[in-house]
Each structure stands twice: as structure tokens, then as C-alpha cells.
Specification:
single chain; alpha+beta
């Protein structure tokens, strides 16, 4: 389903902040808050999904492993996304959750 279809389906507030670029972040959406004002993203889906995509597109002579790509994806999300959340409108900013297996 496309994000716009999910927004219509879930009845998300039109002011809810959607992380950009969408082709990178949409694969991490796992839900919406009860008040319909916040998209909920999975940190693990954001990082693992993007690492797998980048790893599958690497050049043959590229010696980096999947773990290298995962580390880069984690650094990217931490530095460029997590750090920017406090500067977003709290009423509509996205929620990023960390899922732990245990």
C-alpha cells in the first residue's frame, strides 16, 4: 500500500510529519498513534531494510559486508533523523520505537 492510502485508511491527521525522503523512510512505518497525529516508525525496520537494499545494490568489487551497510544505516538514522526530532513540532512529530528481542 502507498503511504497516501495508509493515511486515508488510518485517518491520520493531515499535519502529521512524514519523514523524508519517503522512499527511504516509508518502509519503516509500522503504525499510527492513538490520537492519529503521529506516524510510528520502527528503528529496526528503517535500518535493516535500508541496509539490505543498499547491500543488494553494491558493486561487485565493493568489499563491505551487510554489517557494514547496517552500521552505516544506523549512523545515518541516528545522526540525521533521531537528532532532528526535538526540532519538529511535538504535536505532530513522528515516533520512532526500538524493538528488542528477548
Amino acid at each position: 500500500m502507498e503511504l497516501e492510502e495508509l493515511i486515508d485508511l488510518w485517518g491520520i491527521d493531515e499535519n502529521a510529519i512524514v519523514l523524508e525522503p519517503r522512499d527511504y523512510f516509508n518502509k519503516g512505518i509500522i503504525g499510527v498513534s492513538e490520537d492519529k497525529q503521529h506516524l510510528i516508525y520502527s528503528y529496526q525496520k528503517l535500518t535493516a531494510g535500508n541496509a539490505a537494499e543498499e547491500f543488494s545494490q553494491k558493486e561487485k568489487d565493493d568489499k563491505r559486508t551487510y554489517d557494514d551497510f547496517l552500521s552505516e544505516a544506523c549512523e545515518n538514522v541516528e545522526y540525521n533523523t533521531i537528532r532532528s526530532l526535538p526540532y519538529m513540532d511535538a504535536e505532530y512529530r513522528p515516533i520512532i520505537i526500538y524493538e528488542f528481542e528477548g
